[in-house]
């Protein structure tokens, strides 16, 4: 015979995303999904001044458009 019990599992759930450039909150739709945004995760290596550091950056669509206008070479 098997006897089961109900257990509660704690988990982290993404609640909000804030653009690192402008500070605006990324909006959610009626279903709780975030509008699209650029997410950058970078762990720096030995040949850098930031060896071993990890940076996470979130950029909204509006700021992404402004940012890529500054590039010398176009985004492909």
Report Rg.
Answer: 19 Å
Runs in which pLDDT lies below 50 for 5 or more consecutive residues are none
User: What characteristic shape results from the CA principal axes?
Assistant: flat
Strand order of the largest sheet: 1-2
Average of the residue pLDDT scores: 95
Annotate the secondary structure layout.
Elements: E1 38-43, E2 54-59, H1 61-68
Antiparallel strand pairs: 1-2
Please characterize this protein's 3D structure.
- This protein is of the alpha+beta class.
- The chain is built from one helix and two strands.
- The chain has a two-stranded antiparallel ribbon.
- The longest helix is centred in the C-terminal third of the chain and has 8 residues.
- The chain is flat and about 70 Å long.
- The termini are far apart.
Give a quick summary of the entry:
The chain has 76 residues and is α+β, with helices and mostly antiparallel strands. It is built from one helix and two strands. The chain has a two-stranded antiparallel ribbon with strand order 1-2.
Features:
76 residues; 11% helix; two-stranded antiparallel ribbon; single chain; 2 strands; alpha+beta
